[in-house]
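FORM 12-B: Structure-to-Sequence Request
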């Protein structure tokens, strides 16, 4: 059902966040929301609601209260069910209040120090951003079963530790900021990799402009926070040039810079300069700088900035497979496909088997070297990993060009 899919995409994370904040129970929030979606699938075709998000929240709230009552009966307990905040429905109906309030609240809760560091971002991505366990596992390059166990342990830890569901004071933000930023980065990456904006998480690309603005305002002296806000603006500025007339993805080096959103680029430049003035370099500032060197380009007549890109990647963590793959793209343009392929082949192929960019980059390099059968197999694997429609169309085209 289109209405339910769209509402779940746009409001699902916020509804779970509001439920979790109201009932102080992450599992209950997920279960109640899932039950509300099941009821919507049965009811909406005959009687679609005027406000789908408010309907889902109100129904999920009632489901949560029913679940609590049943638990109390089974346990022969009779405490009063916790009441949600009185203005929850009103808050839910107002994106301007809900996004910087309820969603950031739950992000900070999930990134509590009581939760294991490797689980903080993953837990938030599952609960607040609605990513599947499989999507999160792929993002962190771990097995799906291992990620499921990690998430289960994290939720139990929050319940056992009696973690407060309130946003901590500014004095507690630094210890949670790295996990908060990691969470937002993965959520944004999932949205940004879908050039057509047709996937489940596409809405996060637009929402992230608002969320990063809030964080930059809350933490004006945190350079990594400013840098991530800059990265989002650089990337979103290029969105108008990311699809061709047929709906296929356009690689960054082939995008027409005249279509880019210059006001957003100017915002990003200002944020990155503010971060640099704080004189505390970090990996997110480096990533923002990588986006920035591309956005200096004004037309396709100007050559792509491959030398600057490669120089920046040489400053990054070379043990990071994501860095190694992206660096290989620039290296191929400057040192040739054979040198770049050697870098790719040195990576852990088994660990990266579910990572589509690994196969796409490898396929391109193999094709450029005339290794046709291997290139076709690599393209087939990239396509089998179910990329978005624009990315799939581009991969199919590239595969058909292999001779």
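FORM 12-B RESPONSE
SEQUENCE OUT:
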């Amino acid at each position: 059902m289109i209405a339910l899919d769209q509402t779940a995409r746009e409001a699902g994370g916020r509804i779970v966040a509001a439920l979790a904040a109201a009932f102080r129970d992450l599992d209950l929030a997920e279960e109640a929301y899932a039950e509300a979606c099941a009821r919507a699938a049965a009811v909406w075709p005959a009687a679609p609601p005027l406000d789908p998000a408010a309907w889902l929240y109100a129904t999920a709230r009632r489901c949560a209260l029913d679940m609590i009552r049943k638990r109390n009966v089974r346990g022969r307990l009779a405490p009063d069910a916790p009441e949600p905040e009185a203005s929850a429905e009103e808050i839910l109906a107002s994106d301007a209040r809900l996004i910087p309030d309820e969603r950031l609240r739950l992000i900070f809760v999930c990134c509590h120090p009581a939760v294991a560091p490797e689980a903080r971002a993953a837990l938030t991505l599952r609960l607040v951003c609605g990513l599947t366990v499989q999507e999160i596992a792929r993002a962190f390059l771990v097995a799906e079963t291992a990620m499921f166990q990690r998430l289960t342990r994290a939720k139990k830890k929050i319940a056992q530790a009696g973690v407060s569901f309130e946003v901590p004071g500014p004095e507690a933000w630094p210890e949670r900021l790295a996990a908060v930023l990691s969470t937002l980065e993965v959520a944004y990456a999932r949205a940004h990799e879908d050039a057509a904006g047709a996937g489940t998480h596409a809405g996060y690309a637009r929402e992230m402009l608002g969320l990063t603005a809030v964080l930059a305002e809350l933490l004006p002296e945190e350079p990594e926070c400013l840098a991530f806000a800059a990265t989002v603006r650089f990337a979103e500025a290029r969105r108008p040039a990311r699809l061709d007339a047929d709906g296929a993805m356009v690689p960054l080096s082939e995008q027409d810079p005249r279509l880019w959103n210059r006001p957003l680029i100017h915002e990003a430049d200002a944020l990155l300069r503010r971060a640099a003035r704080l004189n505390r370099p970090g990996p997110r500032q480096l990533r923002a700088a990588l986006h920035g060197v591309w956005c200096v380009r004004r037309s396709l007549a100007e050559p792509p900035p491959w030398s600057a890109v490669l120089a920046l990647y040489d400053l990054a963590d070379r043990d990071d497979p994501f860095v190694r793959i992206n660096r290989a793209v620039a290296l191929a343009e400057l040192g040739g496909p054979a040198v770049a392929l050697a870098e790719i082949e040195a990576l852990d192929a088994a660990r990266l088997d579910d990572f589509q960019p690994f196969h796409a980059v490898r396929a391109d390099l193999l094709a450029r070297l005339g290794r046709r059968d291997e290139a076709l197999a690599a393209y087939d694997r990239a396509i089998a990993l179910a990329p978005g429609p624009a990315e799939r169309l581009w991969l199919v085209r590239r595969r058909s060009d292999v001779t």
